[in-house]
Design a protein that fits this description.
This protein is mostly helical. The protein is about 70% helix and about 0% strand. The protein has 22 helices and no strands. Helix 2 packs antiparallel against helix 13, helix 4 runs antiparallel to helix 21 and helix 8 packs antiparallel against helix 17. The chain is globular and about 60 Å long. The two termini are about 25 Å apart.
Length: about 475
């Protein structure tokens, strides 16, 4: 029997000969799950806060119809700066290892959240969101680690468990953001005399995820082991980069060491043009269209919940919005952990992906229906049931992300190209997400200010849903 050699040139996620399920490396995996909680905790803390923070800066001049424009800009600037740096972080992780990039990302997350809590103007809010985005390279690095530490027998299980941090963040984050905002008003016996809390009413809510990220940084530094088999030291990386002036392989610079070219190849990822193959392009296109649909729906949903009923929304306060998103987080985590592996095993990646993407259509239809019923009879039981149904469809839609991550990992031509493949896909998605929230916010505000164009926002959302659904048909039918 000839054993298959596994090295840096081995394609990702090819079927393993044995039918025995490979156990997950729980020690490393549990640390990774703990680290993953930092990002959703920070983002979900902000979900009920952003509209209120926009109003607090005074940029709208008291006009609630303008909140959507500036909220969209606040979300978009994060993805704009992430799009400029994410590919470089992911490619750097192919050179120097995954761990240094993760530590840098955690540092950036902690610093930006502390600074965001000290925001008093819209300009400083935008600067902090930009800083967070520029140092946010962890998402694609985590996907590379998952692909490096799993095989086809436990890949779906790993991604299912990876929803636990997002579930926890989705539960805890909105509660923190909703309950700890404006502590001087909510807890006058404790913070009522604090001029600092009165001047910076969102610092306490932002400080919680910032402190948690700092703790995670320490845990990762002490206990997490590098997963990249062959890597350069940081000094070697900068030395080779300075000599070559680009991301090209060091063997193109050190031709005199051609006898060690094989070893150099193992230390250097392939060039970007080498991953621009049909399988990668199709997977990245699906990730991009899915992300566009998701970010526009989520941005609209946040604005819809916070906007007064007579202006096209539901008029909920931050605590209620936080409770809704917490319930969504619980349902999403349970569904991902217990049902996704079963659906994936029975139906396959593509069937689950297409059905999940299709969930976006009824979610969009629900927006005007919910508002019409609220205008007619207020926040009745029927309205709350429809809101719950819309959130449940959102849970099903989220399954598409686990599937598309698996398509992207399987599309990577070699292990050496894993970071570059994830980085390229994430860069495209970050570009899409740069415009998605801004467009959604602008459409929502425009539809409020011009009632005769009230449906324009939902036409735009429908376009993103059908675009994602059409792109999904390009995915391969066979399991990779």
């Amino acid at each position: 029997m000839v054993s298959q050699q596994v090295d840096e040139e081995t394609p990702l996620l090819h079927p393993v000969p044995s039918t025995t399920k490979t156990p997950l490396p729980w020690r490393q995996f549990s640390i990774l799950l703990f680290m993953q909680l930092a990002e959703p905790l920070a983002s979900q803390v902000l979900s009920p806060l952003i509209p209120q923070m926009i109003r607090h800066t005074g940029i709208t001049g008291g006009d609630d119809s303008k909140v959507g424009y500036f909220a969209g800009l606040a979300y978009s600037v994060f993805f704009a700066t992430q799009a400029l740096t994410i590919l470089h972080w992911s490619r750097a992780s192919d050179y120097i290892g995954r761990k240094p990039i993760l530590l840098l990302g955690l540092f950036g997350l902690s610093a930006s959240m502390f600074l965001l809590g000290l925001t008093g103007t819209f300009r400083s809010l935008i600067i902090n969101r930009a800083l967070h985005g520029a140092l946010s390279g962890n998402s694609c690095v985590i996907k590379s680690i998952l692909a490096e530490t799993t095989d086809t027998t436990n890949f779906a299980q790993a991604y299912a468990y990876s929803s636990i941090p997002w579930m926890a963040g989705g539960i805890i984050g909105p509660l923190i953001g909703g309950r700890l905002a404006q502590p001087a008003d909510r807890f006058p016996n404790i913070f009522g005399r604090s001029e600092f809390m009165k001047s910076y009413p969102y610092f306490l809510a932002c400080a919680v995820p910032a402190t948690f990220s700092a703790i995670v940084w320490l845990v990762m530094h002490l206990f997490f082991k590098e997963t990249l088999l062959n890597k350069q030291t940081i000094c070697q990386f900068f030395k080779n980069f300075r000599r070559s002036g680009s991301w090209q392989s060091t063997d193109s610079v050190d031709n005199e060491h051609s006898s060690t070219q094989g070893k150099d190849d193992a230390l250097n990822p392939i060039r970007i043009r080498s991953i621009l193959i049909p399988s990668v392009i199709v997977a990245a296109a699906n990730y991009a269209t899915l992300a566009l649909m998701d970010i526009t729906i989520r941005s609209t949903q946040l604005l819809f919940l916070a906007t007064p009923v007579d202006m096209g929304g539901l008029g909920l306060d931050p605590p209620r919005i936080g409770n809704l998103f917490s319930a969504f987080g619980i349902a999403n985590g349970i569904f991902q952990i217990f049902l996704f592996p079963l659906l994936h095993a029975r139906l396959g990646k593509k069937a689950v992906y297409v059905s999940s993407v299709a969930s976006g259509i009824p979610i969009i239809i629900a927006f005007p229906v919910i508002n019409a019923l609220a205008r007619r009879g207020g926040l009745t039981t029927t309205v709350w049931l429809l809101v719950a149904g819309q959130l449940a469809l959102g849970v099903n839609m989220n399954l598409a992300f686990a599937c598309v991550f698996m398509f992207i990992a399987a599309a990577a031509p070699t292990r050496r190209a894993l970071g570059a493949t994830n980085g390229f896909s994430q860069m495209i998605v970050s570009i899409v997400r740069t415009f998605g929230p801004a467009l959604a916010g602008a459409m929502f505000s425009f539809s409020i200010q011009h009632p005769r164009f009230a449906w324009l926002n939902y036409y735009f959302l429908s376009f993103t849903a059908f675009l994602a659904l059409g792109t999904s048909l390009l995915l391969p039918h066979q399991e990779l």
